[in-house]
Amino acid sequence: MTISQSLYDPCEDSLDAAIELLTSIEPTDVGITSCYIDIESGIDASLEEITAEAKSIGSDLDETARYELDDALSRIKVAVCEEQEPEVRGLAIFSRSMIGGRFWQVIPTSLPFRNQLTYYRVPDVRPLLSLRDVCNEQFVVWSTSGGVELLRFGGGSSRTLAWMAESQMQRPEVEALESPVLKPIIGAGHRRFHTLARNTLSRVLRPVRGLHLVLAGDPARLEQLGKWLPGSMLSSVRQRIPVSPYLSRHKALRQIADHAASGVRDAVDAFANACLRFPHLSRSCVSGANKTLSALCSRSLELLFISGEKRFLSSRKSSSGKSKRAGLSTRSGRLSGNTGIWHAEIELSRLACQLQVPVLVTHATQRVLKDGVGGIHRNQYPKAVETCHPRLAYGCR
Prior knowledge:
Number of strands: 16
Helix content: 25-40%
């Protein structure tokens, strides 16, 4: 199976479809190479890092698996070097040879990934799940020198919904007008413009459920936006992003997208910390591969946490000669074909997607999440952290 398409638009559920496809692939005796590339930091530097990871992983594989990995790496390099679209900042690539049932998929994204390579019996979708966390629909009110622009953001891409000129935003100081005859007429006209601009914003956003507003602009304009917005919308403001007025439109929009995504990731981490670090909340949670797997299989898990820490999927020899694998469960059995290991984070995130259990990838709980996995029991939702639950505050799935 071969799939390659243009930039993924999470607002059209294409990212969900890709994750559903990848998590439905059945394992064979041949592993799948999952590669994530940071295009933005430079293709040469990223490929050099990926090649080093492939060499490290290949040193622990048998001859057949090492050939499969090398073949996948060659194809990945070609795909990365052929990527020419300027808005693409990251690539997710999945490859398996004809021996295991050929599979090839390239997913270009408008937000960058961290360079990462794994060779495992099933695809590693954790970075895609992390991307999905921040791909919820967001609305940005951006104040510039010419006026205020309302944009819809999704996964880093944006679309303009409305534009309100500067003259429509502010009421003039009508007292400064010299003519007592024209003063009430001009003043009333500008008040109508002011009201029209606010009504335009309200009309566009009224149908949106779970509104998440981001305010952007230089510090002085951010303060003005807070005073100008209708009072009913102030409670929907989640972030205020300072943007230099000297940036080009392209760079400004990219900065807004990055800051908005960072804000959602911070909310995910805050929620995971609140659940797992405090004793009166952690009673509702499980941590560790075995307990989390049992909760998933019994359909008693409300939400799965996966560690976002970067880890090589290869073995390391300790001084005693025994194999050590960081972050891997010690479950017995040869469950991964040629890779010979069972990776809790990959396996449980895959199972959760199949069972339609929401997954949140967090970078703040590596020391708390045993084996890099954990979750919240169903019907034991910690009420004390409802307000910082990212699915409530940001609409994360």
